[in-house]
Amino acid sequence: MIIAVDAAGGDYAPHEVVKGALKAVQEYEVEVKLVGRKNVLHVLLGRQLRKSGLTIVNASQVIGSHESPVKAIRGKPNSSIVVGVNLVKEGKASSFISAGNTGAVLGAALFGLGKVAGIERPAIACIMDITPSTPVLLIDAGANVDCRPNHLVQFAEMGAVYCQRVLGVKSPRVGLLSVGEEENKGNQLVQETHPLLKSNKKLNFIGNVEGHDILKATADVVVTDGFTGNIVLKTIEGMSDTFLSSTRQIGHLISNVYHFRGRDLLRDVGLGSWVNRIDYQEHGGACLLGVNGNIIIAHGRSRAKTIKNAIGIAKHMAEHNISQVIKEEIHE
User: How many CB atoms neighbour CB 201 within 10 A?
Assistant: First the structure.
């Protein structure tokens, strides 16, 4: 299996991307194609390139994080994002991962791969593994700011397929994110979407869920528009960053005063695994569902561990052939 990785995208590229790819090759037994400036990557890899399981695909251009996605895709055809998506299109890679400009990744995937037949809008599905019992899939996490009710229904269907095939949930509970559990609660979009989800025989729809239900894993799939979903995601990430920063400070203090490692303390009081679950670096990235190919959008601040875990997600997506399964489910 060959996974293409954008070596130029993200705040810590290319150094952290290369380190994460090297770890992934060893752990997941996949081949990784690093897409970026060939001369830079050759210097970083050095002698490791021959025996690492890595190959380099040259891409001389880079799309910056603040560039207009459409203009950048058209004006930079040899960018790492466009070249990486084309590797999937041409069958030279099973999946593509990028921590670069999210809008550019979305645009390149739409232009290069096209939408799954029957899907009106692709959506970003983000795994939120906060509770110990089961992860929660949030969809859409930022691809579509403005949505119609039928879009949310398709998000729910794609999210349920992903939960079944990749996460192993037999009958995923689908919840519609709202401001109350009652059917008449929520804005116009939520109120119009609710009866459509309720009447959908493909889905195990449990009704409206609220923000706190995400942390309680009341539903396996939480459906919302991309505007709301992205705010939820960024809020939880902010909470995670604040908590992790505080625990590190406490750990350093304890280590200095009592000569006891803070990490050991977290483990001994049972917080170690929870800290790992709320750390976005543990989860790798979010899946773009609804395009004809496997695309993973990693966090812009991805370091080596995040890239390695994103490659693991990409491998699972390819093994389960998610885009083809979604196509079959939609046609049914």
Answer: 5
What DSSP designation does 11 have?
T
pLDDT of residue 249: 63
From CA 24, how far away is CA 21, in angstroms rounded?
A: 5
Determine the Cα–Cα distance for residues 84 and 59; give it in Å rounded to an integer: 9
The reported pLDDT for the residue numbered 121 is 96
**CA distance linking residue 41 with residue 58, whole number of Å:** 9
- What local confidence, expressed as pLDDT, does residue 52 receive? 74
d(CA 217, CA 136): 6
Whether the CB-CB separation of 294 and 5 falls below 8 Å is answered with no
Among 110, 24, 102, 40, which Cα is nearest to 65's? 102
CA proximity to 29, closest of 50, 56, 62, 3: 3
Burial 249-270 (b: 16+ CB within 10 A, else e): eebeebeeeeeeebeebbeeee
Contact in structure between 312 and 28 (CB atoms under 8 Å): yes
pLDDT at residue number 119: 94
Pairing mode of beta strands 285-289, 123-128: antiparallel
CB 1 within 8 A of CB 32: no
Which residues are CB-neighbours of 158 under 8 A, at least 6 positions away?
119, 123, 125, 139, 289, 290, 326
Q: Which two tokens stand for residue 159?
A: 């999210």
Per-block mean pLDDT, blocks of 10 residues, the chain (332 long) = 95 94 92 95 84 89 94 96 98 96 96 94 89 83 96 97 91 96 94 97 96 91 97 84 65 52 50 52 83 94 92 93 88 72
pTM assigned to the model: 0.88
Residue with tokens 């994460």: 20
Instruction: Please report the domains of the chain, with CATH numbers, ordered by start residue.
Output: 1-118+290-321 (3.40.718.10), 120-282 (3.40.718.10)
Sorted by sequence, the CB contacts under 8 Å of residue 197 that are 6+ apart come out as 152, 153, 156, 174, 176, 203, 205, 223
